[in-house]
Amino acid sequence: MANHVSALKRAKQSEARRVRNRAYRTKVRNAVKEVGQAVLAGDKEQANAALCKAVSTIDKVAGKGVLHGSTASRYVARLSAQVAKLAV
């Protein structure tokens, strides 16, 4: 464990960030699952609504630095492609 005051503070900050980032990642995973379930069900309207919500969530999390920008873009592109296939 840290001994210096600054190191103790850093440990507390790191733990708080870890917990917060974990919650953000969970939100992203749940949003992606919602889109996947709607796609599997073949419900185009629900898939579009879930996609809109998922893209918003992914962009917010990427903006906070929890996800890398390229990772966020890849998630959005793959989800969009899945939803676009429903239209065909």
Structure description:
The protein has 3 helices and no strands. Helix content is 86%, strand content 0%. The protein has helices spanning 5-41, 44-63, 69-87. It starts with a helix and ends with a helix. Helix 1 runs parallel beside helix 3 (69-87) and helix 2 packs antiparallel against helix 3. It has 88 residues and is an all-alpha fold.
Short description:
By secondary structure, this protein is mainly alpha-helical.
Ordered list of secondary-structure elements with their pairings:
Layout: H1 5-41, H2 44-63, H3 69-87
Number of DSSP E strands: 0
Radius of gyration: 17 Å
Low-confidence stretches: none
Q: What is the arithmetic mean of pLDDT?
A: 95
Number of helices: 3
Gross morphology is elongated
Name some characteristics of this structure.
88 residues, mainly alpha, 3 helices
